């Protein structure tokens, strides 16, 4: 097993990885940027090193610095988490060259699947379903026009190097095609340094359903079922759940075996996610492969009982998978809400500042992968995710009821956040019915105003009032002295925001 692992990330995922390492008995090295000196993640590693200033390119994306830190600290492996260097083929390649095991797929696999056009070809050759579409030469608009006509409008122009919706254009009619191709290509070139685009039939109201896979270095590969990730805004997932309300056992098995087929065609090793779109007639089509551990991996862990991060580490160490497909089952239901520092009433504008007070939910069927603490400062430099609140239930209703209660118990004061918004989505009638597709939020929450105010001033005033009140009396009515004053932190048990 590895002697020591460097965790090339920050926040909740760095903590998640540190915990898996700890359980496997492997010492860890954390890294942090200047504004992360008080980051929660470095309280969970055995050592931690400053790697640079706030700008990601000079710290968490600084390949030379991270590789040097890993070597100096005596590490023999690096876990990249998600984001930052997780899908950077050059980083994976560099690690291997320097004698550090990259805990993820091989550099060539990352590179191959990073090209949406190459991934599409691979999937097509493997005999798995892709969305009707076409490639065309850079200057061959005529071929693009013919293909679009054959495919039928509306079509979607996509960037080969893309992801996250960048370089995507929906085209409803032929006269808009050329302009859209040009602007998509321009956008892709400036965002990814590669202006290659292709076209696909545009699917209306698809669901986003992805399959978790694990593959070992002997070529064995299993699927750990699906995650439904249709609740997104601007290509950012907000709520994920498993099982998907849209799948039955037969469709689940077909999608799972398709994902395994795709992974094996790519000679995939380690954990990965095969994304599919599911149309209204329940046809599924390959979208892309994510070559990393994903944000939403905990819900799969809740229903399968498999520690995905621990299995990633074992696979990277050359171990065979400890289970066969037939031994894997889904039990119960799990849902994840991403708790963000952002203002739902102001176009979800990212929030920053100090968390004056937080009280996070816990209890039966609740998992909270959190990167915050009382007094923690959220900076503008990174993704404003505060935590991932995950619940488990014997069935969907119990998982969602537990989520609603956990969100009600979740108190974050001093910084705008989306907790109330998530609560309203979780309790939405159509969400409760499982009628989720990628257009859900636009349709049901085009703009958002919290039903009874979301003012953090009010929240702080209530906390201050509670604190003031608590100076005079205990809950049984007897007087307490100044030295025994309970802080708002201690009295939050009785405190509810919703
Ligand atoms: C699509 C699509 C409809 N038709 N492709 C968005 C991100 C990118 N990775 C793929 N995306 C989409 N591709 C075809 N042919 C709709 C989307 C899409 C979407 C996909 C998954 C989750 C949320 C989404 C939100 C809007 C559009």
Give your account of this protein's structure.
- With 498 residues, the protein is an alpha+beta fold.
- Helices cover 33% and strands 23% of the residues.
- It has helices at residues 11-24, 63-72, 89-97, 107-114, 116-125, 141-151, 177-192, 249-265, 297-304, 308-316, 396-409, 419-426, 429-432, 440-444, 456-472, 488-491, and strands spanning 5-7, 28-33, 47-52, 77-79, 101-102, 133-134, 155-159, 169-171, 197-201, 207-215, 221-233, 236-242, 270-278, 284-290, 333-340, 342-343, 349-350, 353-354, 357-359, 366-370, 377-378, 385-393, 411-413.
- The chain has an eight-stranded antiparallel sheet with strand order 14-13-10-11-12-15-22-20, with helices on both faces. A five-stranded parallel sheet has the order 3-2-1-4-5.
- Strand 1 (5-7), helix 1 (11-24) and strand 2 (28-33) form a beta-alpha-beta unit.
- Helix 3 (89-97) packs antiparallel against helix 4 (107-114) and helix 11 runs antiparallel to helix 12.
- 46% of the residues are buried.
- The model has no long low-confidence stretch (mean pLDDT 93).
- Ligand MV4 is lined by residues 131, 156, 163, 165, 200-203, 206, 208, 232, 235, 277, 287-288, 438.
Provide a brief overview of the structure.
With 498 residues, the protein is an alpha+beta fold. The chain has helices spanning 11-24, 63-72, 89-97, 107-114, 116-125, 141-151, 177-192, 249-265, 297-304, 308-316, 396-409, 419-426, 429-432, 440-444, 456-472, 488-491, and strands spanning 5-7, 28-33, 47-52, 77-79, 101-102, 133-134, 155-159, 169-171, 197-201, 207-215, 221-233, 236-242, 270-278, 284-290, 333-340, 342-343, 349-350, 353-354, 357-359, 366-370, 377-378, 385-393, 411-413.
């Amino acid at each position: 097993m590895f002697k020591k692992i460097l965790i090339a990330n920050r926040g909740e995922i760095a903590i998640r990885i540190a915990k898996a390492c700890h359980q496997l008995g492997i010492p860890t090295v954390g890294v942090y940027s200047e504004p992360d000196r008080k980051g929660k993640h470095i309280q969970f590693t055995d050592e931690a090193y400053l790697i640079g200033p706030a700008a990601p390119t000079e710290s968490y994306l600084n390949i030379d610095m991270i590789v040097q830190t890993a070597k100096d600290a005596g590490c023999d492996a690096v876990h990249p988490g998600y984001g930052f260097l997780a899908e950077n083929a050059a980083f994976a390649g560099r690690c291997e060259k320097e004698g550090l095991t990259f805990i993820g797929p091989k550099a060539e696999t990352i590179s191959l699947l990073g090209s949406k056009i190459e991934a599409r070809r691979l999937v097509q050759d493997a005999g798995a379903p892709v969305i009707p579409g076409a490639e065309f030469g850079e200057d061959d608009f005529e071929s693009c026009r013919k293909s679009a006509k054959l495919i039928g409008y509306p079509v979607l122009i996509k960037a080969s190097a893309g992801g996250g919706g960048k370089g995507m254009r929906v085209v409803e009619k032929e006269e808009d095609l050329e302009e859209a191709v040009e602007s998509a290509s321009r956008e892709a070139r400036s965002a990814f340094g590669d202006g290659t685009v292709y076209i696909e039939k545009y699917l209306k109201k698809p669901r986003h359903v992805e399959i978790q896979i694990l593959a070992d270095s002997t070529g064995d590969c299993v699927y750990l079922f699906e995650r439904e990730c249709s609740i997104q805004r601007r290509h950012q997932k907000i709520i994920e759940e498993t099982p998907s309300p849209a799948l039955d056992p037969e469709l689940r098995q077909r999608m799972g075996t398709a994902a395994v087929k795709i992974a094996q065609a790519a000679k995939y090793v380690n954990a990965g996610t095969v994304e599919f779109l599911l149309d209204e007639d329940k046809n599924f089509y390959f979208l892309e492969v994510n070559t990393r551990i994903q944000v939403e991996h905990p819900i799969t862990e809740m229903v399968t009982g498999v520690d995905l991060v621990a299995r990633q580490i074992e696979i990277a160490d050359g171990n065979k998978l400890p289970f066969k497909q037939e031994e894997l089952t889904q039990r119960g239901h799990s849902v994840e809400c991403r708790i963000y520092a952002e203002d739902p009433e102001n176009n979800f504008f990212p929030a920053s500042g100090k968390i004056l007070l937080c009280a996070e939910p816990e209890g039966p069927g609740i998992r909270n992968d959190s990167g915050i603490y009382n007094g923690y400062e959220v900076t503008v430099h990174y993704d404003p995710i505060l935590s991932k609140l995950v619940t488990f239930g014997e069935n969907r209703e119990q998982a969602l009821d537990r989520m609603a209660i956990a969100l009600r118990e979740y108190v974050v004061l001093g910084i705008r956040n989306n907790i109330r918004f998530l609560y309203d989505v979780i309790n939405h009638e159509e969400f409760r019915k499982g009628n989720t597709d990628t257009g859900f939020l636009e349709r049901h929450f085009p703009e958002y105003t919290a039903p009874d105010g979301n003012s953090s001033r009010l929240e702080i005033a209530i906390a201050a009032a509670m604190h003031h009140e608590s100076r005079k009396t205990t809950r049984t009515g007897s007087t307490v002295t100044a030295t025994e004053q309970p802080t708002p932190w201690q009295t939050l048990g009785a405190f509810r925001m919703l």
